[in-house]
Amino acid sequence: MILLLAACTGAPPASDGVDSAPVDSGDTYVNDFVPPAWVPDFVHSAEAPEASEGGVVIVPLIQSGGGGIVALGARGDVVWAFPETAEGLNRPPLRARLSADGKDILYNHMAPNADALCEIVRVPLDGGTPSTVGMHGGHTDFVEYTPGGYATLGWEIRAFDDRKIMGDTIVELSPEGVERTVWSVFDDFSPDLSQTYASLYPEDPTIEDWSHINGTSYDADEDAYYVTMTFNNGVAKVDRASGTMEWFIGNPDAGDFSNPDADKLLELPHSVERIDGGVLAFSRGRMGVPGECSEAVELTIDQDAREVRRAWNYTSPDCISVSYLGGAERLPGGNTLITWTTAGQIDQITPDGRQAWTVNTAIGNGIGFTTWVPELPR
C-alpha cells in the first residue's frame, strides 16, 4: 500500500528565500537575500578561488534546535532557505537534491522503523505549496530515478534461529504510486552468524544491524543503482530493471575484482557515485583510531581485467573524522565537492588537492548529504 501524505510544512513567504537567488555579472556580485534567523553563519575561505567551479550547493542542515534546507552560492553565501517544522525535528533532513525537472528542492525524513513511512518532501522553488510522499522503511538516502519516481534505502529484518538481523534494501516508488523492492542485500550476501552485530535499530535493541547500507546513487546511462555497504566496506552495483547485483567491491579481497596494489580500498563507505572509469566514494574511516581520517576516494575499475585500484584520494589537512553520513561528488570540471557532515564543513577540492572553495558552520550545526547544481532556477 502506498500513502500520499499531506505536506508537513506550509509554503514559506518570499522572505524565506523560495524565489531568491544571487546575480553574478563580471566583477559585480549581488545577493539581496537575507537569511532567516534559524540559518547559522557560514564562513567562506579559499586557497585557490580561481579554480572554483562555482555553482550552488543544496544543504540539509541538522541542528539541535531545528534545521532546514539551505542553498549556498558561489561565494558561500545563503541564497535560499526553507525551514523545517516541529514535526520533523526528531527526524532531521538527511539528503537534499534538486528535482529532476529542475523546479523543486527535494529532501527526506528517515522512517522510524521498517514498517513506517519515510517522507520525501518536494518544495517548489516558485513558492508553491510543498508536498510529501511516503515510502516504507526508507532511511538515510534517496534518489529521483525518473521525474516523479523515487528510490530509497530501506530496511529488511530476517530471523536466524533466535536472532533477528537487519539488512538493507533498495525500494522504488514509481510516478504512478506503485512501490516495489528492487533488491535486498540478503539476495546476494549472508550475515556471519559467528559474529554479533551492533544493535542500532531505533525501535528494537534486540535487532542486530548487519549490512548497514549508508548511501545510494542512480546512473541513468546504465539504469543502475550503486550502494555502499558497511559490513564488507564495499560498493555494489545493482541493475534497476532486474534487481540483479552486477558486481561488488569490498575489503579485504576486493569482491568480484582483484586488487593488484593490495590497498585497503574503503573503510565504512558512505556516499557513492559512478564516474568515468570507476566510482567516487566517501570513506568514513574508523572513528577514534589515531591517524584514521575520513577521505574522498576514487576507485578505477577495469572491467576487462577485473581489477580495481585506488586512483585518487583527498584527506583534509586537519584529519577530519566524521561519525555519520559524509559525501563526495565529482563536479563537471573535475573538482570534487566533499561534505564533512558532522564537522559542519564543505570543501570543493581541485584534482591536485587545493581548496577552491570551503565553508564552515558554527559548532553545533551538522550537515547531511549535499548536492551541487550549476544554478537554481529563477
Describe the structure.
The protein is mainly β and 378 residues long. The chain is 0% helix and 47% strand. It has strands at 4-5, 23-25, 28-30, 42-45, 56-63, 66-72, 78-83, 93-98, 104-109, 117-124, 131-136, 142-146, 149-160, 163-173, 179-184, 207-209, 213-219, 224-229, 234-239, 245-249, 269-275, 278-283, 295-302, 307-314, 327-330, 336-340, 345-349, 355-361, 365-367, 371-373. 44% of the residues are buried. Mean pLDDT is 87; it is low at 1-29.
Layout of strands and helices, then pairs:
Blueprint: E1 4-5, E2 23-25, E3 28-30, E4 42-45, E5 56-63, E6 66-72, E7 78-83, E8 93-98, E9 104-109, E10 117-124, E11 131-136, E12 142-146, E13 149-160, E14 163-173, E15 179-184, E16 207-209, E17 213-219, E18 224-229, E19 234-239, E20 245-249, E21 269-275, E22 278-283, E23 295-302, E24 307-314, E25 327-330, E26 336-340, E27 345-349, E28 355-361, E29 365-367, E30 371-373
Parallel strand pairs: 14-16
Antiparallel strand pairs: 1-11, 2-3, 4-28, 5-6, 5-29, 5-30, 6-7, 8-9, 9-10, 10-11, 12-13, 13-14, 14-15, 17-18, 18-19, 19-20, 21-22, 22-23, 23-24, 25-26, 26-27, 27-28
Q: Per DSSP, what share of the residues sits in E-state strands of 2 or more residues? A: over 45%
Structural class: mainly beta
- Residue windows where pLDDT falls under 50 for at least 5 positions: 1-29
Give the rounded overall mean pLDDT.
Answer: 87
**Total domains, how many?**
1
The CATH architecture comes to: 6 Propeller
Give the strand order, joined by hyphens, for the main sheet: 1-11-10-9-8
Q: C-alpha Rg, in Å? A: 20 Å
